[in-house]
Design a protein that fits this description.
methyltransferase activity; S-adenosyl-L-methionine; 21% strand; Class I SAM-dependent methyltransferase; EC 2.1.-.-; Methyltransf_25; alpha/beta
Amino acid sequence: MTKLITTMDDAMTMLDDMLREPTTFWNDFYTNREKEVPFFVNAPDENLVQYVEQGILHKGKVLELGCGAGRNALYLAKQGFDVHAVDLSNVALQWAKERATEAQAHIQFEQANLFELPLKENYYDFIYDAGCLHHIAPHRRVQYVEIVQKALKKGGYFAVNCFAEHGAYGGSAMSDWEVYQQRSLQGGLGYTQEKLQVIFNDFQAIEIRPMKAIQQPSTIFGLDGFIVGVFRK
């Protein structure tokens, strides 16, 4: 029988199938640990380190969305945070778990789709996203913001690291309409300060700026072509 769209969830799932990279894509992406992917280094984002060192963030419960191989989760755990790190790829999580074991760091890793993840309300002091937002299609963006709002404590912080428009590693400047006309995210959507302010307008913007490029090897990580922001609920 031909599939019928009878609920909003059916419509969202259909659009997901048009645009979202499947789990197998991300598993394949993380299989070869030796390929030259900048964020395969085991160093935390420079902006995240700044938030901790400047006292914006204090020890508490953290949710990391799209943790990949665990470099930011590991840093936060070492700083005394209680970390819950989620990713779609079990291959990425296996690498992250190996890093955590080697560092003797306790992190709760979970393989899950963000939009199917049961989360406690008003539970986390900090939610971090380093590379998830720019892979989320426009039809899921409102739900993404609602999930962050729901899971974050009042007064808690949310921070994001995503493609800037026309960045060296991605960052399409196409409109939301064009995403569906072309049936593609063109490798990832690009954001500007103005776009982030509109999307997260229910939060207090603490800082939005370009990510600082950090020459590797280094104890911290940063790339041109990304934009970072931290917000308070």
